[in-house]
Amino acid sequence: MWTRTDSGDTLRAALAKDKNDRVALTSVGIDDITWKQAPYIVGSGACMGTADVVPGVSGGTMAVALGIYARLLAAIASINTHSLRALLRFDLRRVLQLVHWRFVVCLLAGLLTAVVIMLKVVKLPHLIETKPTFVYAVFFGLVLASAIVLARRLPEWTVWRGALLVLGAAMGFAVVNLVPVQTPEHPAFIFLCGVISICAMLLPGISGSFVLLILGKYEYILNSVSQLLRADLTQLGVVVPFALGCAVGIAAFARFLGWLLNKHEHPVIAWLVGLLIGSLWRIWPYQRLTTAEVRGKTRVIGNDPYFPESFEVGVAVLIVVGLATVLCIEHLAARRARQEAPA
């Protein structure tokens, strides 16, 4: 569970083990990393960056698995009113004392490197266009496994939590049906996408990329980032609003997340499980797509999932691969937590 430190300024958390042998979060002091720890944090950032590009894999889940989730939230919370006031006074020495800047720099270095590799080497946006059924099969397995992992975090299911699961499923299904496939490309909407997706990324089990997929802006934003890496500066009109939205979302949501998990941890998890289950409709591998010409480009304006007469072996295998990936991450998370938990 989350608690605050006496200072009330910085979110302090570390892994601990409670009497039921379940991983919990408790309050202890967390300082910035040393340079000796930098290589591990860079590697962790690379894992999180890869996860964040793929819908279904939560960057928050990856951070838990790698044992840096508490450090991540503490680093975000270190950017507070005290550090901002020091920055406005140009007191850089004080800023560096307050902000976990070594952790942030190392994490971003690994994260951005992984994103570039996924876009430039793996070319994920191109794969989605050319082999959507197989790519979405992996995504489906990833999201389904994330729901299973979250459900296992609950010590027991009560009527209230079951009701929240049903509510979350209804909301998830409603969202993916109400949100139009063709959403606006206005900078204000891209900014909102950044806010929502980064908030989702911080929650273990929810993928920021999956949220972009629901909002109909996953391929659009990934293509913009890919084009910007090719020195196409016209894409700054997309990337900058999205980045600003991420900055605003992460600054505001980290503190709210600490309070929410402290006060209502199990109800929130039950609701998230339902939300994931209800959202699976959007990424079912078999979809009949309706397209139309919009401003000279072929756009998807409708999708109708269906169950095929014969299920392709490759699709089934890729769903299992997605499931196994997240379940392995959860296994690593539990093992690492047990190793680092105090006696």
Model description:
The strands form 2 sheets. The protein has a two-stranded antiparallel sheet with strand order 1-2. A two-stranded antiparallel sheet has the order 3-4. The protein is mainly alpha-helical and 343 residues long. The protein contains 14 helices and 4 strands. The model is unreliable at 1-28 (pLDDT under 50). Helix 1 packs antiparallel against helix 2 (59-65), helix 9 packs across helix 13 and helix 10 (187-202) runs antiparallel to helix 11. Strand 1 (14-17) and strand 2 (23-26) form a beta hairpin. It is globular, with a radius of gyration of 20 Å. The longest helix has 44 residues, at 236-279. The protein has one domain (14-340).
Overview features:
343 residues; mainly alpha; two-stranded antiparallel ribbon; globular
How many helix segments?
14
Number of domains: 1
| Share of residues in helices | 55-70%
Low-pLDDT ranges: 1-28
Oligomer, anyone?
single chain
| Mean residue pLDDT | 76
Number of strands: 4
What is the succession of H and E elements? EEHHHHHHHHHHHHHEEH
